[in-house]
Design goal:
This protein is mainly α. The protein has one domain. Helix 3 packs antiparallel against helix 8 and helix 5 runs antiparallel to helix 6. The protein starts with a helix and ends with a helix.
């Protein structure tokens, strides 16, 4: 009985160690390429989720430098990005909702993100709301929107793969094996 086990075990090892035909590798590589966009979206999603965690946790005055320190490989100017998000939100408040005065928008446009937070209270002492909480809500909403967009992009890519009659997990495995 042991001899039979050894014989069959060695044959199964030999059978599994045979190389795949070259054409199969090319097909698998082509299948893996279908997952390329979804993989990039997944990487972006992970980055945005980590950034959102910092936005929620870190004090606003240190947020720009902390994001730069935590994500040195990113080619983004976080301070400028934070400034732009705040300007757009305040422009919306002033022009569309008409819920904030124009002077505040002009103040935001003429200062940098880090100085806005420090000087806003002294510039507008009669401001009723908590400015820092409002800014944090704006930033959290922006990052949550980016995350929702990336999730939708991933879903669309997965749906495209399913439409082709392929299983997404198989395509992802081929991508990892041949395209990474």
């Amino acid at each position: 009985m042991d001899e039979l086990k050894e014989t069959y075990a060695s044959e199964s090892k030999v059978a599994s160690s045979k190389p795949k035909p070259k054409s199969q590798d090319e097909k698998d590589r082509a299948i893996g390429k279908l997952y390329e966009d979804a993989w990039e979206y997944e990487e972006d999603l992970a980055c945005f989720e980590a950034e959102l965690e910092l936005v929620k946790r870190i004090d606003l005055k240190d947020l720009g430098t902390t994001l730069l320190d935590e994500f040195p490989g990113e080619d983004r100017d976080y301070n400028q990005e934070l400034q732009n998000v705040l300007e757009r939100a305040w422009t919306n408040y002033v022009e569309l909702e008409q819920s904030k005065p124009l002077e505040q928008l002009e103040f935001i446009k003429t200062n940098t993100f880090s100085t806005i937070l420090e000087q806003f209270r002294t510039e507008f002492p009669s401001y009723e709301s908590n400015f820092e909480n409002e800014v944090k809500e704006i930033l959290v909403a922006r990052w949550e929107m980016l995350i929702a967009i990336k999730k939708e992009h991933i879903k669309e890519e997965i749906d495209d793969i399913k439409t082709m009659g392929l299983k997404p997990n198989y395509v992802k495995r081929m991508y990892k094996q041949y395209c990474r």
